[in-house]
């Protein structure tokens, strides 16, 4: 299951890694809530006091939400909340951590400087992951003496809910560090995937970017409104992909005719679309304004919208986790045995 | 709920439209199974006897699967199976139908000729929908005397499972016919959306084409293998989109800063991706072969894969349908009241 509650239940406090989350923004809060909800000891640090204190409150509230949504075990989450610490300095957050999660803003100079400071106070055996969405380990390590224990571990948001985490090792990252992080993530019920090389946006942002570009264009062209666009994705391809992924769906659709003929028919079916998809690199100011207005007009009751979205997401996650699905394709067969 | 079992239970046989499905391929079988599973009288026709007889068997088996997957009511499905007819001629299939569903192969001349034949034997009040994925009502009506009762109603596959149906009226389609089809689809637990104009591939295929192009390129470039690609989509954006759709997720993410600033940050985040996404219009023969081989290598046990995919899809659909979600965004507020 994606939530390995049995494994979590067996874990002694000693075997859980000590986690330091550096940066108390949305992603840092998600990481902290995720690890704390499994009962792991977490220290949260932010250079600014306001975001840190607000962040601590929200981490607690997100852990409680995970229990309410049946995405975390109540006893484990309680233990994690008792262990949760707010660190007044980088030193106290990092010095005894096994896993240091950098979650600062997406600014190369800021992250490089922060990682340099982390290195100066981290234990020799600690592993450092960056939550970078567009930056790479090969850039982030510029000020480090040791680049071998740094890799990118990019979650989606809400971090504590969506299982996928992209691991992107740099050219100097040691394979053992990648394996440590994979193992920790698996224990946290995540589904880590390892990219074979660094590409702009990793993998997920590239796919999401492709969908955003065409979606924005279809709305701006007046083909569809924002609400129907959301339905078009939610109740169509998103459900199909959540059940199978494009590769699986193609493999199954090809069963009778064979993959080569299926790929021929796929190419034929989509060539007209490929030739006419939106192809711009930049979203112009006027288009930004028009699209923002269209989304604003589409939805008013944000509280209801959020509650509905979060409930559906939790229900969908439980559906993917249903008993009997433990060994489905979503779980990497070469990942450590839980 | 997406499966309006209460409404279905209240329906008398007299109020259910008589459905004729013309074409017993995968899409025709799905339409027939969907309508029959709601207890509606369905006639299935195909010009070729082999596919028709095989199709009838599979329609029955799909209806039974819908019951087993808790996507259809057992009593209604039983009534539908008793009413299901195999038609030996187009005339007997169509002559008393209220809703004629054309599901022939995606060939303009074939569909135009078939629609002409349908028109000659259809009741005056019948509505005709084409399941065309790339063709449009404005092209399909070329040989018709009356273009006002024809529109495209494009489902996804598996037709009987995925809720979304794209309705694309042509320039001559009467609004009442669009409303009839919306109402029937809503009664069948579908989520119809109406496109405001004809575009290549309608909306869904354009979005899927964008994802396929980038996915194929990432696999061919060796950034990720097919299994991790499937995980990257399934356990990441697909779950997020199934819960909320991009518009909703954007609206919620923007809550603090406002939509305009959010769209600015979205544009900034994805510009690097947009500039570097795959941009080809054609998939070359060598690339087709390499991609087909990669998908073949990824998955071996097709029976297990199919059972797992279908189970997950049914569980995901139940999750979207959970009690308390009747009024969520997925349901068009301007649709007829069930």
Q: What is the 3D shape of chain A?
A: globular
Question: Which class of the largest domain in chain A in CATH terms?
Answer: Alpha Beta
Number of E-type strands of chain A: 8
| End-to-end Cα distance of chain A | 10 Å
Q: Indicate the radius of gyration of chain A in whole angstroms.
A: 21 Å
CATH topology-level fold name of the largest domain in chain A: Rossmann fold
Most extensive chain-chain interface = A-B, 119 and 119 residues
Write the CATH architecture name of the largest domain in chain A. 3-Layer(aba) Sandwich
Q: What helical percentage do the residues of chain A reach?
A: 40-55%
Task: Walk me through the structure.
The structure is a homodimer of 338-residue chains. Chain A has 14 helices and eight strands. With 338 residues, chain A is α/β, with parallel strands linked by helices. Chain A folds into two domains: 5-194, Rossmann fold; 204-299, Orthogonal Bundle (N-(1-d-carboxylethyl)-l-norvaline Dehydrogenase, domain 2). An eight-stranded mixed sheet of chain A has the order 3-2-1-4-5-6-7-8, sandwiched between helices. At the A-B interface, strand 8, helix 9, helix 10, helix 11 and helix 12 of A face strand 8, helix 9, helix 10, helix 11 and helix 12 of B.
